[in-house]
Amino acid sequence: MDAKIQTLLAWYKKHQRDLPWRNNTDAYQIFISELMLQQTQVDRVIPLYQAFLNRFPTWQSLADAPTSDLIHSWAGLGYNRRVLYARESARVVVATGVPTTETEWRTLKGVGPYMAAALTEFVNHRRALVIDTNVRRVIGRLYLNLPFPRPEDDRRILEILERVTPMRGAHWNLPQALMDLGSSTCLARTPICDRCPLQASCSSRMLFSEIHLAQTLATKQPKKIRERIHGEKPFPDRIYRGRILALVRKHSRMRITALGELIDPTFDRIADADWIRAMTTRLVADGLLIMHEHDIITLP
Ligand code: SF4
Q1: Cβ neighbours of 257 (radius 10 Å)
Q2: Rounded to a whole number, what is the largest CA-CA distance in the chain?
Q3: Is 293 among the catalytic positions?
Q4: Which of these, 39, 177, 273, 289, has the minimum number of CB atoms within 10 Å of its CB?
Q5: Which pLDDT tens digits describe the chain residue by residue (300 residues)?
Q6: Is 205 in the pocket of ligand 1 (CB under 6 A)?
Q7: For 4, what's the count of Cα atoms within 13 Å in the CB-facing half-sphere?
Q8: pTM higher than 0.85 for the full model?
């Protein structure tokens, strides 16, 4: 086995995070954890994960879930469409069984390349190459001398993963170990190299050892993917759409014209009217709201 990977896995054995979905063999529970972990921080997911499983404990219960229950149960996780896609996936699984390969996972709605590879490893215990931001960062730094790897570097990162991922044994521990090192030690802006089990063999260690150089490099980090932002608003539309849904959850029904001041303290009745309507229309198109006569909206 590659010497760096051997060191990393030995470190992981002692220092792995105690997460409720770790060392779990239930495909449904692992699926829900991966679904929640897309775009949402681990600390926020943990309490919501257990509550969601209590409410929807099986594929069948998710497949049968009414939309309004799902949206209620998804509060705090954002990107509400994910849970509606998950219900579609659950219906497929109930009808045809749990996927057994990466290709089969990819056929489920909302399951992208990362999630399919992760589920193949964690559910099926089949070898797959799992890349998320932590994995990309650690592999890029460790093997490629890339202090801030970007998605464009994934081809090279995949080549490394293909080379170093064990063919046998508990290879599903490798992505977990890379994620744990990335979130605890090999941090995005300033890695804590002095605490890293791989500092002796890391190709980026020297770069980070000089604080000034690290600061210079930090300014070269890739920009975040731009989200839709209306005018000079401080947050992307995603945040305001979430607020609209939260209001409808709370009051059962709302009039579109009453939303503005409630979701945005800087709301301007003239300049922002079309913006509110466009966001509401999008929520309706996504199946998260229903539009009634007289501009009334409710949950489905
Ligand atoms: S030595 Fe530093 S840069 Fe290299 S893997 Fe460890 S924390 Fe990351």
Answers
A1: 13
A2: 67
A3: no
A4: 39
A5: 899 999 999 999 999 998 989 878 899 999 999 999 987 888 889 999 999 999 999 999 999 999 999 999 998 888 888 999 999 999 999 999 999 999 999 999 989 999 999 999 999 999 999 999 999 999 999 998 888 888 889 999 999 999 999 998 889 999 999 999 999 999 987 889 999 999 999 988 887 776 445 455 555 555 556 788 898 888 889 888 988 988 888 888 999 999 988 888 888 888 899 999 999 988 988 888 988 888 899 998
A6: yes
A7: 19
A8: no
